[in-house]
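quick one: zinc ion bound model?
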Amino acid sequence: MKYLLLIPDGMADWRVEELGNRTPLEVADTPNMDFLAKEGACGMAKTVPEGYEPGSDVANLTILGIDVRKYYTGRGPIEALAKGIKGKLVFRCNLVFVENGIMVDYSANRIGDDEAKEVIEALNEALEYDFVRFHHGTSYRNLVTIDRDFDEDVKTTPPHDIQGEPISKYLPKDKELAKLLIDLMELSKRVVPEVTKKANMVWIWGGGKMPNFPKFKERWGVKGVMISEVDLLKGIGRGLGFEVVEVEGVTGYIDTNYKGLARAVLKSLKDKDFVVLHTEGIDEVGHEGDAEKKVEAISIYDEKIVGYLIDRLDLEETRIMLLPDHPTPVKVRTHVAEPVPFLIYGLKRDEVKRFDEFSCRKGKFGLIDGLKLMNLMFSK
Ligand SMILES: [Zn+2]
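yep, here:
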């Protein structure tokens, strides 16, 4: 038996007025996903545990059976994993714009990569600690590694959560590590404005030790393959011991190289037993807030990924699970922590005939903890 997990990032949504009070998934033309739902079994999965932000990191880890309450150490370490950066502690390090002590822009006016890179270089030159290093990521999203053991947790706050608020209320407090982080931020106030006008300091958050995920193969007996357009998922794949397959010409948007992605799946399934295909485009149009465009993106996904694959796979020998990691409702243009619809093809069917947010509620699995999805995937 072969196992295929399809994750169209952010596909789930709410009912939208301009779509006649239907969800983009209800409106989209999705004969292939509907076929899988009709011949398979459905349910709803809670992919974001209580108290966690509905990020793609948390949601995808949960889908893959990793209990984030035990293993998640922050966004910084996962991004470091994705980029192959190592350090005892890793934090996210946003370039931000602060005015009169107020967080004005967590994204440094979407600073360009070249400029951001210059800032990061200047910060490294100005550093007085040899165990600290700044790393450029993309735009305002950067990392800082700290290669020293600290026996403490430090509470930090995402800068996008404190827009318009005084930063002094949210600085890390007490103890040695907090002092170090504050020191680095103070240093940045001097260095950053010398290089750019878009940012005037760094904001350090979302950090911790490098995660030590249980290896997928040890738990499920199959070595996974991760195919994704984004670093985050490749990092998660590496952390779980997956083979990471790169596909050329992908954009992370709806104009991506669908054929290349689908072909990579077919090729990987030839000699591997478990393949994950995560695609980003639908989430992006969710963030754009364009309902019609999201409908179109879902229809394209159904045809060019799901349809292409089921026409070519040996469906007798392949179990397919399909679900978004989290909803990205066009109305709010961001992720929400609500359950997502899922389908499994290859297990005894239920009465659900369509794949969408409301049909799947009537599926035989009901509402399940996302951590149980891999148990269903590999159930006998
Ligand atoms: Zn997103």
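The mean pLDDT is 95.
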